[in-house]
Amino acid sequence: MPQFPLLFARRAALAALVFLVWAGPASASDSGPVIEQIRAQGHIVIGHRESSVPFSYLGPDKRPIGYAVDVCRRLAAAVQARLALPALPIEYLQLTPANRIEMIETGRAQLECGSTTNNAERREKVAFTIPHFITGARMLVKVNSGIDRIDQPEVKRVAVTRNTTPLAAVRRIQAERGLRFEIVETEDHEKAVQMVERGEAQAFVMDDVLLYGLASTRSDPKALKVVGRFITTEPLAIMLPKGDPAFKKIIDDEMRRLIFSREIHAIYQRWFEQPIPPNGQPLNLPISYLLRDFWKYPTDQVP
């Protein structure tokens, strides 16, 4: 019988133990601009989104909830423990796709807990930790529209959220294929969904997991459907400021601990396989083989 599963299990257990040992008391090396900012202000600021279901959105009580928000709360607890702080309150700052990078780059928030793609262009301005999800962009359309391809002549207007990777992909596809649809940029996902519902756009292009989540929150979830081939591949990760290796190490170490201990699996199941607010509808999206394979050797370096 092959020994690879057993060997991998032993390696994973050893790695988890190593990370637990590393997460010891604060030392002189635990300093840097982000860490000193947190110490000085006495709290950590987590940036969240309004409608990135199920990653980061406002619950029925208007407080931020979601998969990425829960992960960020674990990261904040790790920062408190590593810096030996008696307490580290969390302050939440609502961000948009248009301003999220600027808010992290300028230090308004120390963590961005949403659905942001880790790519080379963004890494010029900000840092990322290990991806917590891998997805791809597809289309949200009306269930009776007959649309399942972006190049169909029925597609006259395509809504895409501003300052997102799917927007660049749609522009590229339009130019390469000579397609004549109009691209409408929206400030957030909610406005794009509303455009499809009202017939102001025939399709909304965004990460498919977000589209499933957004559709589940509508008054009639069955009126919309996700269609089409993947336009992009998107490794989603928590964003943090550049220039503080000590802070990034705390975050990366905790992400690896969550993965190797499988704690992140329970968080994932809570948001993707069980009923979630506001309508109590489950997304029924088990962990993909892409994410499972990526988590075997977790790294923040992605293509």
From TrEMBL:
Leader sequence residues: 1-28
Keywords in alphabetical order: Signal, Transport
Entry keyword annotation includes Signal: yes
UniProt domain Solute-binding protein family 3/N-terminal: residue ranges: 43-275
Family annotation (Pfam families): SBP_bac_3
Cited SUPFAM superfamilies: Periplasmic binding protein-like II
Cellular component annotations (GO), alphabetically ordered: extracellular region; outer membrane-bounded periplasmic space
Biological processes, Gene Ontology terms: amino acid transport
Protein family according to the UniProt entry: Belongs to the bacterial solute-binding protein 3 family.
Protein name, as recorded: Amino acid ABC transporter substrate-binding protein
Organism: Hydrogenophaga borbori
Upper lineage: Bacteria, Pseudomonadati, Pseudomonadota, Betaproteobacteria, Burkholderiales
